[in-house]
Sequence to fold (819 residues):
Amino acid sequence: MTDDSLDARGRPVVVVTGMGLVTSLGQGKQENWRKLVGGTSGIHRISRFPIAGLRTTIAGTVDFVPLDDLSAPALTEALGALAAEEALAEAGIGTPGNFPGPLLLAMPPVEMEWPQRLAAAAAAETGNAPVTWMDLVRAVSDGRFAPWSERFLFGSIPEHLADRFGTKGSPIATSTACSSGATAIQLGVEAIRRGEAAAALVIGTDASVNPESLIRFSLLSALSTRNDPPEAAARPFSRDRDGFVMAEGAGALVLESLAQARARGAEVLGVVEGCGEMADGFHRTRSSPDGKPIIACMRHALEDAALAPDAIGYVNAHGTGTPENDKMEWLGLTAVFGERAGSLPVSSNKSMIGHTLSAAGAVEAIFTLLSLRNGVLPPTINYDTPDPALPVDCVPNVARELRVSHAISNSFGFGGQNACLVLGV
Amino acid sequence: MAADRDALITGIGLVSCLGEGPEAHWAALNAAGGFLPVLDTARFAPWPVHPLIPVTWEAQVPRREQRQMEAWQRIGVYAAGLALDAAGVKGNAALLERMDMIVAAGGGERDYAADEGIIAALHDAPDPGARLNDRLLSDLRPTLFLAQLSNLLAGNISLVHGVVGSSRTFMGEEAAGTDAVRTACARIASGQGDLFLVGGSYNAERPDTLLIYAAGGLLRQGPFMPVWERQASGGGMVLGSSGCFLVIESRAHAVARGAAPIARIAGVLTDRCGRRPGEATAVAARQVAALAPALDGTAAVISGATGIAPATAEEAAFLRGLDLPVRAAATAFGHPLEAAFPASLALAAMAVAKRRLFLPLEPAEQMMEGPLRQALVTSWGLWRGEAMALVDPA
Fold:
């Protein structure tokens, strides 16, 4: 008798036993799923900071989590914790504050922000002379701003979350740009497969919508400027798509070996069947024109899952809605799926929740698993003007009931970092 | 016992205030007449920094690409190129296409002039929010964002050197470096990879990073004192610009391609604690116990102690209990955060390959006369994270 807790290569099968979500659509899987299949958009006018003069005035910010001292790392940490609480409650694993495995975290880079810089400038005693950067350093060195030191360490978010959930060992915080969430899942899968852990807590979280980060993306011409109405801006695969919409959110997954999940009687919510990656050395923000890394990335994931392309019934696209991404993703899909590409359902959650950046890979993996479990594929909304160059079945505008056994979730990042997950039920 | 899945260091790329390449470092660390620190005490006074030695960037980074990177990225791409050269894989597309990369990265660097202009413009502005938007839109270079992003060091290595098998970036100060090495070694041991490029880089010569540590009172001011001696007068960290990348590969892979191994990473352990008194010592004691069966008594310690009190004094007390000769890497080239653990490993690998330890860097460090066979490497992060590695002959 073969042991079905091992995969075709004799590695532990890695399953998901808990999932948690926070996006601009709301808190918790239930609310998120209901709105996602209802075609609801979470994109809205930015109210967090003044939008005067900005080319893009919309985002998928999460505004319903109050914080005393708002900063990107503080909100990133808070959203990650909320998603993890939900995932842990569902998995019923460990005890509160004592998770029996490592933490793998996808998060944005950390940097001190303008409110701090301006506070330091106000504290600098330069008389009438202009404030220099070294004046800022001197101004903060008397201990008045000591909490910044911990808050703006890269290690603060993973360490605080590890403290809170009692994960084991050194927490890993990863950034592969827009692929980060998928990379964190892959790190967890690898740890379980090599027998280093029987369970892993994976969190992808990102709450970095502030004036400078928005403007940085804006200056790269990456963002949609279709500000009115906000919910119509994200238009993946449409001919009139003009960029992505920045957004915030978090997704958390409890990964376990199938053997352990069975032994403790946990419900299996899905299987992470394969992971693939391939970096692109072509350009910092553009894909190789031949699509080679994207194609290899999907093929590696299928190979890792020991599945043929024909086994895949749904693709949760990276689908950012930038002219470049959607074109390249379609090119990749046609190479991997051949003639099936046009009839394969391929939808983009980002049409509704925007681009949750470092969190996207984790958030969208959870939506993919919910699609498989519920037998419903979420739509790509705002699909009014098909792009004749991309004859994709993007599940236009209305969710579709369809039972699928295996799906792909794609993530492609700036800096050429691509990751692809094969998920199953 | 040699095993196919051993993790071997087959290439070292190291650049710091002491020089470029392992041999330049070895020479500086064994200088006749004693070790002399390389410091810049003027530019960021009262905080000294260890500045990067002048390098010929073009040797590893095409001029047109240099403009797309901030200094920390440029240092890293440069060091990565040195490592690929040393391992004999530079330009070998067939190998680079399946080489896995794990980069330990911070991020940032600012356009300091632009920031200072914005601060001046916002002073007394009637609508500071709107003014900030205007100035950011007009003053930020579009390419600056990519030059600041953490994952773009790896991205630039893919672009410049063609390492594209996979690309992952770890963040979190020293722990990013320790977990990058640990993950690479674990993947090699379990057959999840054969050929890795692992490392990081740091630019200390920048006010934005000094600010974060100055706010926490973590930086040493005033005249230079070595790491251990500093503890009697409050300790503190002196940052150092450095880049270090290692090519780490399975023995089977190294043998098959005829690579010359430098040393073997026999074990690497990472962990964490809340840093209440004695907790880091307990973590390190468990790590030594786990590595003890492989320790043979001819080892020395390359310590990653940052200089910050009280953790550095606690580590010093712990290391006295091991009764092994110790060298503090941060005395040699300052503390390079994400690059610190790879750089300490590089020193350890050199010592193991040469069968001897370099000279003491301060009176508190004891001379090692006899032959050295192994080296322990420690990393107690400036805030959190404790790691230890054991380096053996290849």
